[in-house]
User: What shape does this take?
Amino acid sequence: MKRFYLAHERAILGVTGVVAFLCLWEGFERGWWAELLQPLLGPQAARFQLKPIFISSPTRVARMAFDMFFVTGAIWKDLGRSSLEFALGVALAFAIGIPLGLAAGWYRRFNYAVEPFLAALNATPQVAFLPLLILWVGTGLASRVLIIVLLAALPIAISALAAVRTVDARLVRVAQSFSAGDALLFRSIILPSAVPFLLAGARLAVGRGMIGIVVGEIYGSSAGIGAMINQAGSRFETDKVFVGVLTIAAAGVALVELIRRIERRVEVWRPQVAA
Assistant: This one.
């Protein structure tokens, strides 16, 4: 038994924590804790029972999720729209962030030129640009994809820049001594060394992309998971709000776990940096 626990400790503790949280949440809606505390607190114990309109409960959320996914299928259209926006935004973020970061890390003068912009964007909440994006390109797909690009490209670019700076200088000198050009250096040395860092940046980009989906759809869309959350919240449908939030969270966790598994495979490529 002890060996089984040690082998699966992470999963066991994770499941235990989730189950405990769900029981605590369910108890607030059903009044379990109010009943338990009634002898001690008297009328004040009623504060430990919350109305479903404010907090819902795990069972209510589960029933709503089952209905939206498998009975009416109402969520699939919104999920498809959000998935398309996320895929386009993250793909563009990689297409922009990786070359930008690699070039800024390798070419000193180019780094001097773009570093102020990277620092400014890193210190600025990118969602503040959303009103401008809506003015420039409207409330269609483009504005939501662009806000995802703004949010996701920065961690990718910074990770790529850091990757270039940690490349083993001895390998670069050896390659240059054999007259290797920049294209060969990038292909044979820099890119393989950058992969672990890019995957770490991708994990951050996934989280930021999820934020971009919700914010972009709340402000500029009538469809998608973010729009569904916004509309359900305005109608006090807390069950549906939690379904949308948990759907986004589950998708993010699944993508981050996928990237983490890939990262473990390429961990041996990560250069050892002296302390």
